[in-house]
Amino acid sequence: MNPSFEALARQLADVGRHCYERGWALGTSGNFSAVVRKEPLTLAITTSGVDKGLLESSHIVEIDARGRVLQGSGTPSAEATLHLAIVRARGAGAVLHTHSIWSTILSDAATDGGVTIEGYEMLKGLGGVRTHEHRERLPVIENTQDWTAAAPEIETMLRKHPEAHGFLIRRHGLYTWGKDLAEAKRHIEILEFLFEAMGRKRGLAWQP
Ligand SMILES: [Zn+2]
């Protein structure tokens, strides 16, 4: 049986505070969601404007597939349409979005539409990856303030890159997901580790 909305709200609040503590979602940045029900689709998702260091389960609402609030109070994240697009395109059980320093720098430095990571042992923390020889390609998309308009384009991009475990938004941050919240959290940790390792290794040469 799937966890209840209340249980997922508590788990999302824990994950959000963890990301804040690691410096990946400072201030009100970042947003986090998990699927409550698949049919009809509903999501537990963070509300906008909440300091992630103070995130509690009362800051999580349940929304339907059109982003309407079914349970809880507050306005769902402005990027809720993006979370829904990722769940539809990937069949994800949870979607996590951070605004870390290294994802911001690497997204800015990518000149060929994506960031490629290969040869690192930590890649094996990504779902389905068995060897450090794996080549992970994360698409980089341009930033916008209108994710409702951009969501169909993102869904198309995700279907075009079925092997990607995440994507970056330029000068903005990382989106990743997993079959459940535990896997999505692991993907955040693995990808943030790899971004920092790559960023530190390349230093100023990596800058655009
Ligand atoms: Zn964001």
Spatially, the strands of the biggest sheet line up as 4-3-2-1-5-9-8-7-6
What Rg do the Cα atoms give?
16 Å
- Based on Cα principal axes, name the global outline: globular
What fraction of residues sit in β-strands?
15-25%
Number of strands: 9
| End-to-end Cα distance | 48 Å
Mean pLDDT: 93
- Uncertain runs are none
Count of separate DSSP helical elements: 5
Bound molecules: zinc ion
Series of secondary-structure elements, N-terminal to C-terminal? HEEEEHEHEEHEEH
**How many strands, what sense, and barrel or not for the largest sheet?**
9 strands, mixed
Q: Which class best fits the helix and strand makeup?
A: alpha+beta
Helicity range: 25-40%
What would you say this structure looks like, in words?
The protein has 208 residues and is α+β, with helices and mostly antiparallel strands. The chain contains five helices and nine strands, in the order H-E-E-E-E-H-E-H-E-E-H-E-E-H. Strands 4-3-2-1-5-9-8-7-6 form a nine-stranded mixed β-sheet, with helices on both faces. A hairpin with a 4-residue loop joins strand 1 (31-37) and strand 2. Helix 3 (101-109) packs across helix 5. The longest helix has 22 residues, at 181-202. It is globular and about 45 Å long. The model has no long low-confidence stretch (mean pLDDT 93). It binds zinc ion. The site of zinc ion (ZN) has 5 residues, from loops.
